[in-house]
Amino acid sequence: MAVIYNEDGTKKVRKGDKTPIAMIKRVGEPISLRDATKALHVIKTTSGGNKLLEEARRKRLFKTNPIDINM
């Protein structure tokens, strides 16, 4: 990753933890209860406090990936 400098020569530093968070599953593939819990945590942390966005992502998750209790 390239280092970016300000106009005065100081180094720009990003605030916060910017590591990518993702849940890798195929659409339509059943997910376990543990994966669903992890996915809900990811949705909660990445929605930025926007309740409507959080609800839309949650609905999309469970509409496309059914929960399989036997996994």
How would you describe this structure to a colleague?
The protein is mainly α and 71 residues long. It has one domain (16-71). It has 2 helices and no strands. The protein has helices at 33-46, 51-64. The chain starts with 32 loop residues before the first helix and ends in a 7-residue tail after the last helix. The model has no long low-confidence stretch (mean pLDDT 83).
Give Rg in angstroms. Answer: 18 Å
Structural domains: how many? 1
Mind describing the biggest β-sheet? none
Per the principal axes of the C-alpha atoms, what is the gross shape?
A: elongated
Low-confidence stretches: none
What's the total helix number?
Answer: 2
Which band does the percent of strand residues land in?
Answer: under 5%
Structural class: mainly alpha
What helical percentage do the residues reach? 25-40%
Strand segment tally: 0
Mean pLDDT, to the nearest integer, reads 83
**What order do the helices and strands follow?**
HH
Terminal-residue CA separation: 39 Å
